[in-house]
Q: What sequence folds into this?
């Protein structure tokens, strides 16, 4: 009987401890950065996603007739490529987002309508949008990444407390567990597990950054936790309504976006409930070790960093529902 009690206590301690080495990243020495304006869009536009390569900048627009626009850097008056559903016949984009996996060339990758992948690249100076494969069929998801073998994504699943999965047609889904520290703070509430996901196949790494708690976790590509990092000293918990549902409006927003380059993972960190405070940009090596932290001069929700790690392009809100496309020089 005593032996059984000891075994049960030991199992309980294992379940309540973290699965990986616990690290804390403080923001005290963040370097301030000032943005430089590139151009503005009025309230007839809503830019919800941005992708920068070393030579071009692409934006996705929700309100305007022009869904996808690609500019050569420094030439923002005349785009080099446009997808307008009224006139562009080669592909009809329904719900496009830029994919997150790390690439090393000028290709721009998209996922659309939960069922199709596209490649956008310059062919003899003419940009072409081409479907990669036939339709795929996975659960409703976002934050798509792709390797040679699998699709990685964050699910919209109100019944499962998993931050992400990977999938292939022969073996189906592998649902990846959060670290137990994160599980405890999110109370196993599936709608609290919203996160940003980025995969670097050559480094054998996947990284997730949670929206409603202050953790960034690095995994290998088989879903094993390598490093778990908490941003700041405080533990941030989601606020729940009396019904037990997530109180999105009053919950602190933590990590808002991620972008991967061959060298680093970049994360936008807010730590405010109303999106009103200036944002931090945090860079990690792909082994999980912190590299640099910057404090930006305004609130930023969406960003993209060039592969040479020199420039971070962002979308920020202006009065009267206008938006500004700006950049930060990373020092």
A:
């Amino acid at each position: 009987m005593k032996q059984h009690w000891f075994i049960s206590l030991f199992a309980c301690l294992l379940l309540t401890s973290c699965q990986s080495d616990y690290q804390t990243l403080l923001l005290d020495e963040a370097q301030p950065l000032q943005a430089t304006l590139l151009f503005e869009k009025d309230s007839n536009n809503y830019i919800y996603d941005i992708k920068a390569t070393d030579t071009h900048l692409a934006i996705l627009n929700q309100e305007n007739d022009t869904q996808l626009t690609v500019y050569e850097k420094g030439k923002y008056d005349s785009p080099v490529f446009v997808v307008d559903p009224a006139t562009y016949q080669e592909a009809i984009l329904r719900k496009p987002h830029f994919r997150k996996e790390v690439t090393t060339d000028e290709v721009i990758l998209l996922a659309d309508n939960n069922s199709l992948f596209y490649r956008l690249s310059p062919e003899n100076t003419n940009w072409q949008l081409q479907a990669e494969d036939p339709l795929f069929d996975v659960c409703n998801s976002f934050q798509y990444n792709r390797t040679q073998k699998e699709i990685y994504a964050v699910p919209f699943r109100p019944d499962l407390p998993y931050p992400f999965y990977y999938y292939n047609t022969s073996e189906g889904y592998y649902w990846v567990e959060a670290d137990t520290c994160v599980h405890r703070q999110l109370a196993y509430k599936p709608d609290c597990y919203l996160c940003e996901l980025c995969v670097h196949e050559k480094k054998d790494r996947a990284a997730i950054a949670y929206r409603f708690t202050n953790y960034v976790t690095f995994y290998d590509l088989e879903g094993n936790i390598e490093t778990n990092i908490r941003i700041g000293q405080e533990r941030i918990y989601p606020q729940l309504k009396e019904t037990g549902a997530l109180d999105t409006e009053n919950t602190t927003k933590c990590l808002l976006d991620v972008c991967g380059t061959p060298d680093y993972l970049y994360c936008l960190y807010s730590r405010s409930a109303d999106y009103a405070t200036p944002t931090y940009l945090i860079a990690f090596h792909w082994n999980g070790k912190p590299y640099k932290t910057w404090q930006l001069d305004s609130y930023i929700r969406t960003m993209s960093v060039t592969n040479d790690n020199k420039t971070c392009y962002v979308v920020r809100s202006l009065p009267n529902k206008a938006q500004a496309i700006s950049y930060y020089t990373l020092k």
Observations:
- The longest strand covers residues 264-272.
